[in-house]
Amino acid sequence: MSTESSLRADIVEVGRRMYARGYTASNDGNISVRLGPDRLLMTPKGVCKGFMSPDMMCVTDLEGRKLQGDRDPSTEMLMHLEVYRQRPDVQAVVHAHPPIATGFAVAGIPLDRAVLAEVLTTLGSIPIAEYATPSTTELPKAVRKYIKAHDGMLLANHGALTVGGDLFAAYFKMETIEHFAKISLVARLLGRENLIAREEVLRLQELRGSYGINAPAPICADPPDGADAGSGTRGDDRSDEIATCQVVQAPAGGGMRLVPNLLDACEPIPATQGHEETEIRLTYRELSALIEEAVRSLR
Ligand SMILES: [Zn+2]
Q1: How far is the CA of 71 from the centre of ligand 1 (A)?
Q2: How far away, in angstroms, is 199 Cα from ligand 1 center?
């Protein structure tokens, strides 16, 4: 069991890393850990997370009453309290505004496509909680929809939230989300995003057990079996239903591309238009003859 002093030091260290990596600017972001069954240790409001000291932290109960500390707790305390209420297994909560992931949250694009094995095994999918005014009771309500089934989510037009069995587990999930967002952005800029097939996604899910990964809910594929692509309801964000599984977009049997293949869509320029230098077309026989000739000249 971690002592209070080491947990205070861990919060300082995680805040420093978040600020150094550009996940927060100015006084953004907040961090909390469980100190006991009904006590939390939380970053104070109005401080830069890159320059905190252990004595700055607040101790609160699960109702948000301050028990100890010179400063007031984070303005996003209500969101943290909601997570601890909904998830008795969670020991730490991290909130930040990592710019690429937040860009997806602003664009309304969830990180829910089956593209990276390590993201599927750890977080499954990363949905977007509906927009809510920061620091109000709206934000815990928006988070409630996904927190039982997810250890990480985007917050629409705001940032990202991660939770874990200890503080560093929660922080590393924030790193994973931002890293995944960067890779997804690059793939989409390149014009191709090949998805991992549903069968492979289910195989990866099996690995969670052998790697000892405690995911809060299983992965479920979208579209569901028997439904057409795009008509799945489990990934429908407009529903008020509490999410019970991690909805991942994965095609049955492979071969589906959600992003059009821009490279294949480019029409080759016909040689007759005087652009011979742009493309050379050879029949198989002509190509074979050229290769044979090249091989002969090497002997
Ligand atoms: Zn925020």
Answers
A1: 19
A2: 37
Distance 134 CA to ligand 1 centre (A): 7
Which pLDDT band holds residue 156 (cuts at 50, 70, 90)?
very high
Cα(92) to centroid(ligand 1), Å? 16
**pTM for the model:** 0.81
Spatial distance between the Cα atoms of 139 and 252, rounded to a whole number of angstroms: 35
Q: Is the pLDDT of residue 58 over 90?
A: yes
pLDDT digits 0-9 by tens, 190-241 = 999 999 999 999 899 999 988 889 999 999 987 666 554 443 334 445 567 8
82 C-alpha to ligand 1 centroid (Å): 15
Token pair listed for 158 = 């705001």
